[in-house]
């Protein structure tokens, strides 16, 4: 039984745990990764300026989230990537990771955060909407799975100035 995971930053010592975690993700889910080379993906999940957090149960990583800040004219934005192991889904792991990513993004001065979600990932979309993300665009047939079938992609955005001023008014300050 999965215990309540600890959410912590990912660091260089996590390489083997990241590779083991990514191996638990079914090929059907990996088909929606922007980068499908899982072992290579693990090596790129440390370093650079992205914010990265892992949900850890014991010694095992059961979920991860990253926020990649934009560059140049988009340096105030950040893209969220969230991956949760099948055995940890529907247990609040994704929600805890998404919350940590949002708090981290705000703490780093990002004002607009976005996430891309496959249209059939209704639960994931609703979770992000509960954090104030709004659907901005539906990109028809924008992604392909491993069978070559096309799927719609939904772009959800979160405007920090718009949503966080309301949280402050309600006495929530910087916490969600």
Describe this structure in words.
The chain has 176 residues and is α+β, with helices and mostly antiparallel strands. It has one domain: Aminopeptidase (3-Layer(aba) Sandwich), CATH 3.40.630.30. It has helices at 15-23, 27-30, 38-43, 93-107, 122-130, 160-169; strands at 6-9, 51-57, 60-69, 77-84, 112-118, 134-144, 150-159. Strands 1-2-3-4-5-7-6 form a 7-stranded mixed sheet, sandwiched between helices. Helix 4 links the parallel strand 4 (77-84) and strand 5. The longest helix is centred in the middle third of the chain and has 15 residues, at 93-107. It starts with 5 loop residues before the first strand and ends in a 7-residue tail after the last helix.
What is this entry, summarized?
With 176 residues, this protein is an alpha+beta fold. The chain has helices at 15-23, 27-30, 38-43, 93-107, 122-130, 160-169, and strands at 6-9, 51-57, 60-69, 77-84, 112-118, 134-144, 150-159.
What are the main properties of this structure?
single chain; 176 residues; alpha+beta; Aminopeptidase; 7-stranded mixed sheet
CATH architecture: 3-Layer(aba) Sandwich
> CATH fold name, please?
Aminopeptidase
- The overall strand count is 7
Helices and strands: which structural class? alpha+beta
First-last Cα distance:
27 Å
Beta-strand fraction estimate: 25-35%
CATH superfamily, by name, is Gcn5-related N-acetyltransferase (GNAT)
Radius of gyration: 16 Å
Secondary-structure element sequence?
A: EHHHEEEHEHEEH
> What's the CATH first level?
Alpha Beta
Quick one: overall form? globular
Low-pLDDT residue intervals, each spanning 5 or more residues: 168-172
